[in-house]
Amino acid sequence: MKASGPVLRIAYLYPDLMNLYADRGNVTCLERRCAWRGVTPMVQHLEWNDRLTGTADLYVIGGGQDRQQQLASQGLTTSNADQILSGLGDGAAMLAVCGGYQLMAHRYRAADGAELAGLGVFDAETVHPGADVPRCIGNVVCDWNGSRLVGFENHGGRTFLGSSAMPLARVLRGHGNNAEDGTEGAVAGNAIGTYLHGSVLPKNPHLADQLIRMALARSAPDFELAPLDDAAEWAAHQAAVRAAGLR
Amino acid sequence: MPLRRPAAALAGRTAGWLSRLTRRGGGTAVSGLVTSALDPNFVPASLSQLHSTITVTGTNGKTTTTAALCALARAAGQPILTNPTGSNLERGLAAALLPHVNLTGQIRDAPNLRAILELDEWAFAALAPTIRPRVAVFLNLFRDQLDRYGEVDRTAAAWMATIDRLDPHATVVANADDPAVVAVARRHRGPLVFFGVDIATDATTPDAWADVRRCPICDGRLDWNRVVYAHLGSYRCRSCDFHRPKPDVRITDFQPRGLAGSCYRLITPDSNRHVEVKLPGLYNAYNLAAAVTGVRAAGIETDAGSVLETFQPAFGRAETILTPGGTIVLLLVKNPTGANQTLDLLRSEPKALDTLVLLNDGVADGEDVSWIWDVEFERLSPRRLVVGGRRAEDLALRLKYAGVAPTVDRTLVCPGIGPALDAALASEPRSPSRRLIVLATYTAMLDLRAICTRRGWVDPYWKAAA
After folding, report:
1. Homologous superfamily (CATH) for B317-464
2. 0.80 exceeded by the pTM?
3. Which chain B residue has its CA at the smallest distance from A28's CA?
4. Which residues have C-beta within 8 Å of that of residue B204, sequence separation ≥ 6?
5. Chain A interface residues (partner B, CB cutoff 8 A)
């Protein structure tokens, strides 16, 4: 294993709150795929009440329960908004999943009408249509620039993109952002928001590597990610495609 | 009405008999389903005729705790009625009642009969107010199949609403070590007793996949001076008076003996003795403590220690199956906490083991397989390893990122259950003394057991459990 490569600094936001759907598999995946290429991953775990210190190349946040999401919203907006927004402005990358994705848009209106403020990274907002409306649950396959992304979604809120927002992907199976317009997730600069669990990165290695490339673009623009043997990754990807009823 | 109940019972039994005749399964689900559909009041009306009812609910350990409660009550000579195959929704209760119903729709020997029933977390919330348990046992609250059960906080909120509607004379038996359970239990207006595990540990932060980190009463910060596993342990809130209550029944001096069982001291208000049980793992120490606390709360007097020492694991819970190629040890895993506890158990075995891991994504398993990324497979160090089931490829990927490599051969990936079992049993040495550890999700376990039944290695589950 090469050890001479660059360092990739990951800020893992609120793993103590936003940890419901095993999205920490994304961090495991990033760490391993970096290490296999001689990139040294350094992960900072930002817990509730912590302030971000230093800069990060990649911000990662997962999905959580309603109450924890409320706490995370407070923590983000009161303590860490400036740091994250200026980091992204300087070219850092982000992966925000489910509840984390909702918090990175303008706002989230909960089932009881309460509003949670978001950071506005994505020009989008999320409305929960009420506790009696079925959640969006199931396997998802979508088209991402001509290749596929797979995962499992489980969300009550419906996210609607604003006029300046770009969807991440187009839904082939599943609900995506809102079960209406066929969009899934959002992209803003180097930030990616998505509803996909699974965990999403291990079985979408092309997305994982895209995030690593974007995160390294500033500090190591000439570093090339060596190809890996991704047979196991694509086999799991294909199993998820089959589980969604596609081939 | 007078004819409805016997007719519903007869129709249910007929349906169950047909189901077995056509080999579609044990017939428990279908007989109960038919009866409850024809007579929606069948379960509460029948249970109300009995001496009393004990319910067991919680995420993990329901089947084992219920079986242990039954063993303790039977040893005291109490006639009991139970739902032993893990069929823990209303239809399962109906099916358990059916064999005790006479032709006029009455329960035979009702005044002496006690019901000891396991209930799914949501079935408990829905049914407890009408079935009026005398004793309600709450084991724990962990994340489970999120696409089926939803968020942990929602289950806790449903329990909160239910506990206010329990009979104030009912006794609530609760796990002192689980803050989520204690927050619910302490709302009960009637008698409240606790069980817990006192072990020395260095861990003072809940595991990464734990669901309770903040005070369930005030959202303040919880401090643990001891974590047993997940979020179970000894805790205190920094902001309010919420803390671990003193357990009435405790387990101390826990010593694992691998898959063979465990030894510990079982301390109740009137006894303190060393026991050697066949049930492995700390999680089963909680289950047995819960059962002992439950029978005491029900006023059943029995020599708990000796009964527990001979108590055998429930179906699929460290059950052993003899095959010509080796002895299968079957371990059901269905959520991160249970799976991580099972991996800890395997780690307490002295030697590397031949291991088969089966992952299905049926409704009963959870269609979302994300949870395997919360399972610390990094703890697994098998001798040989085969992965199977409908999502074998997801499992293989998880194991790759966990860095798990068997000490002999490479990991074999065999989609399906039969081929994976054959591959796992094909390796040398093929002898009954060789052990094969099988970790399987719910439907994978049923499929595996069905294969073993067809090959004549084991009885069908409805016979094994009876």
Report:
1. Mur ligase, C-terminal domain (3.90.190.20)
2. yes
3. B401
4. B223, B224, B225, B226, B227
5. 15-17, 19-25, 28-29, 32, 48, 65-67, 71, 137-139, 152, 154, 197-199, 202-203, 232-233, 235-236, 238-240, 243
